[in-house]
Amino acid sequence: MFRRMRAGEFPDGAKVLRAKIDMQHENMQLRDPVMYRIRRGHHYRTGDAWCIYPTYDWAHGQSDAIEGVTHSLCTLEFQSNRPLYDWYLEHLPLPGDQPRQIEFARLELTHTITSKRKLKQLIAEGVVDGWDDPRMPTLRGLRRRGYPAKAIREFLTSIGVAKTNSRHSIELLESFIRRDLNLTAQRRMAVLRPLKVVITNWPTDETGQPVVEHFEVANNPENADDGTRQVAFSGELWIEQEDFAEVPPPKYFRLSPGREVRLRGAYFVTATDVVKDADGTVTEVHVTYDPETKGGTAPDGRKVKSTMHWVSAPHAEDATVALYERLFTAENPGEATGDPLDDLDRNSREVLTGAKVERALADTAPGEVVQFERLGYFAHDPREPMLFHRTVGLRDEWAAIQKRTAR
């Protein structure tokens, strides 16, 4: 009858092959479990050659033994399957020593799901781009987002291997990522939402062209061996839109009319005027600079309350930047409704085109992670030049959580 099953004489679901063990066994997994079932489905390797397929439990131990696996590591839900795993191995003429199945707790993170079935659904519905989408909790996704392998290993070592299921804060993982990148990532200046700044008293050369200066800036203050680089500075700059407010709110210390700020490594500037479009939106800010404050310090000792990053407009490169929020809004996706996809944030990615970055970023290697000063850590896409994925922000959310817990 089994040969007839193999030959395709019976329809799907009509017959199964079972292991005759004990229908009264206290472990339900050993109550004559199914080994083969009839299922006509196109296989990506063997095509339509087979119409019977083995169950997971039947194939699991055999595959391990044939491939020389010594320890089969499974999550806790397979603990009741272990006696069946062993039973099959003991009753089959397989090569080598018998493998062992060992169970451990599944690694779960807040705001994350690890169900491959649900993750595949996200891909099928176009919520994410694929298994290597930077929002995916896959190794390919984490690598593309710029998570260092060393930081992931240190995180896993810190939480250890457990026998009880638990959910760990994703902020803790990000804390390890941030700590590693702080030591290794090169610093660069980038403006994600650019606003033009014109220095009205900036000098010109004998031909009437604006003077170009270069400032020496450290590549990584945490590692002197990374050296320095020369950054161009001119009379036209890009700054972040949020770094200027025509009517500043309380405790706003960045650039606003009449206020003086420091441009990172360069000069003090004071806003004097603005240019607006037909809708009343500020498109350009005019400032004056103090040439005595070169390097970012004033000879008279006066202080400013804000230091801003910038990019020289004539020397800027264009880049595309992808910003990511949590893929799931709830700490435990699906806890309220039973379906994790009910907590899905379908707007978890924002892609900014036309970001302005310093020229050194054009030499960033594919996959390399750099720190955009004041903004966070960003990974250069391994395939698409001048596309940067935000790896993690600068603010240590885990430290803030620990402080609140301590109170």
From TrEMBL:
Record-annotated Glutamyl/glutaminyl-tRNA synthetase class Ib catalytic domain positions: 3-182
Domain Glutamyl/glutaminyl-tRNA synthetase class Ib anti-codon binding: 185-290
tRNA synthetases class I (E and Q) anti-codon binding domain boundaries: 307-381
InterPro entries: Gln-tRNA-synth, Gln/Glu-tRNA_Ligase, Glu/Gln-tRNA-synth_Ib_cat-dom, Glu/Gln-tRNA-synth_Ib_codon-bd, Rbsml_bL25/Gln-tRNA_synth_N, Ribosomal_bL25/Gln-tRNA_synth, Rossmann-like_a/b/a_fold, tRNA-synt_1c_C2
Source domain of life: Bacteria
Native organism taxonomy: Bacteria, Bacillati, Actinomycetota, Actinomycetes, Micrococcales
Protein name: Glutamine--tRNA ligase
Signal peptide from the UniProt entry: none
Family under the similarity heading: Belongs to the class-I aminoacyl-tRNA synthetase family.
E.C. designation(s): 6.1.1.18
Record key words, sorted: Aminoacyl-tRNA synthetase, ATP-binding, Cytoplasm, Ligase, Nucleotide-binding, Protein biosynthesis
